[in-house]
């Protein structure tokens, strides 16, 4: 077949197609060897102005961020986002911001919230009462009042200070503290069902008045008083030792006990108080926090002083390794004598109390003796009972949460930036149109291949139609 003489227009078209194919191939080779764009010079800063990042706006923000993630799917460099906040975000929004920051999208925020970093804690007090200790700390303006509220309304209002605290007998969660635009909240753990105390002793003044002090303090006492090796008088409805029914077992005398059952009770989370002569029960020495060596008499007339404990007969204690001396009394020899020693055994606690006849504190002391005796035994049982543990979510507990929302936001995405520095990248990272075009072409390699294939195919088809190979 004799090739036809090329039409000048067709010849020009063929040369253009061939040139485009070669240029496109050269661009593809250039992009394959071109280094990635620096992080500061990729895209103009994306900025949202969020008046109040609540759950609803968090949903809208999620949609926008997902769009950013899809757009950046083929990119080698992270995108940058700035959020302008005039109110602290909700928990959902803060979690979203943390996820965005962890997805290689550099997230910064401008603080226009006028909120301060306050933190709120609510801890259940050990013991039967299930009272709640509330603490507030942070940097606050002195001119703003601090308001404590629960679901039922306002509980207290005081001038704002760096630290404040309350002990609440009861509350309706959630518990909130407000200082101006700042708010923190916690959902205090609901009170556990009240558990009882098992008191084991021989009949006498000590067992009688210890039981009375515990009942006056609000504990429900079941007692077993041994009057002979085979006979015991019961108080209440004593049952088998079980942590679901009993919080603490109190032993006051050197007597025969089921040491294996008591040890098992403690290891499963129960509390044990060894008071007075119970420290001499050899079967319980493996779990006792202290050894009783000898007795020391009470100081004459001390029961009527401001240190009535010195008038009580007590054992001299030697704390075992791993035990903690919780309280000591001054002695006549010039050194401190341990009178309260505690140790953790398994999941429970064992407390040793040195006093042998604490009832004299109540009956022979000052007018405040009964209240002080009651407070002493309440504190001893609170130390042994502890607070029931609850399961925690380690991922959620890695951040402060609503108990300190400002600190929670900073922990997730870092501290705020100034408004001027937030918009600076728009002015300093402007790039040429060529760099922008190259980035777009790098993100679409299929487009380059299509251009090369179509131009070469068109040039080849034109030559074939006029009989030229």
Automatic annotation (TrEMBL):
List UniProt keywords, sorted A-Z.
Answer: Membrane, Transmembrane, Transmembrane helix
Source organism, top-level taxon: Bacteria
InterPro entries per the UniProt record, alphabetical:
Class_I_gatase-like
Q: Does the keyword Lipid metabolism apply?
A: no
Q: Does the keyword Transit peptide apply?
A: no
Query: Which residue windows are coiled coil?
Result: none
Transmembrane intervals: 443-461
Q: Which PANTHER family match?
A: BLL2462 PROTEIN
- Name of the protein this chain belongs to: DUF4350 domain-containing protein
Give the source species: Gemmatimonas groenlandica
């Amino acid at each position: 077949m004799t090739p036809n003489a090329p039409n000048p227009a067709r010849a020009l078209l063929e040369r253009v197609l061939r040139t485009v194919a070669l240029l496109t191939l050269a661009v593809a080779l250039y992009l394959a060897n071109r280094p990635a764009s620096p992080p500061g010079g990729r895209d103009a800063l994306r900025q949202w102005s969020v008046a109040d990042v609540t759950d609803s706006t968090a949903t809208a923000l999620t949609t926008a961020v997902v769009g950013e993630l899809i757009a950046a799917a083929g990119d080698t460099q992270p995108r940058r986002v700035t959020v302008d906040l005039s109110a602290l975000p909700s928990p959902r929004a803060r979690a979203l911001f943390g996820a965005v920051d962890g997805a290689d999208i550099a997230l910064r925020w401008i603080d226009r919230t006028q909120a301060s970093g306050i933190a709120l804690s609510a801890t259940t007090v050990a013991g039967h009462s299930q009272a709640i200790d509330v603490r507030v700390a942070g940097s606050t303006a002195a001119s703003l009042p601090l308001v404590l509220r629960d679901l039922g309304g306002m509980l207290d209002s005081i001038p704002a200070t760096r630290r404040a605290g309350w002990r609440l007998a009861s509350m309706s969660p959630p518990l909130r503290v407000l200082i101006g635009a700042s708010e923190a909240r916690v959902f205090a753990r609901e009170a556990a069902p009240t558990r009882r105390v098992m008191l084991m002793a021989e009949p006498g003044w000590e067992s009688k008045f210890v039981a009375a002090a515990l009942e006056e303090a609000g504990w429900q006492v079941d007692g077993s008083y041994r009057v002979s090796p085979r006979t015991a008088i019961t108080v209440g409805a004593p049952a088998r030792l079980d942590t679901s029914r009993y919080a603490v077992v109190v032993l006051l005398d050197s007597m025969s006990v089921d040491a294996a059952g008591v040890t098992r009770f403690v290891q499963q989370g129960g509390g044990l108080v060894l008071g007075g002569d119970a420290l001499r029960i050899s079967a319980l020495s493996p779990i006792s926090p202290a050894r009783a060596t000898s007795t020391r008499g009470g100081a004459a007339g001390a029961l009527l002083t401001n240190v009535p404990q010195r008038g009580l007969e007590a054992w001299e204690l030697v704390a075992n390794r791993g035990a903690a001396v919780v309280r000591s009394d001054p002695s006549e020899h010039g050194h401190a004598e341990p009178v309260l020693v505690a140790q953790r055994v398994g999941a429970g606690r064992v407390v040793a109390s040195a006093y042998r006849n604490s009832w004299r504190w109540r009956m022979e002391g000052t007018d405040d003796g009964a209240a002080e005796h009651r407070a002493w035994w309440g504190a001893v049982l609170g130390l042994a009972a502890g607070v029931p543990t609850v399961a925690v979510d380690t991922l959620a507990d890695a951040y402060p949460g609503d108990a300190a929302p400002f600190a929670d936001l900073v922990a997730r995405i870092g501290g705020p930036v100034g408004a001027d520095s937030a918009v600076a990248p728009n002015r300093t990272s402007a790039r040429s149109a060529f760099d922008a075009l190259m980035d777009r072409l790098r993100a679409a390699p299929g487009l380059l291949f299509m251009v090369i294939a179509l131009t070469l195919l068109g040039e080849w088809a034109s030559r074939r139609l006029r009989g030229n190979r």
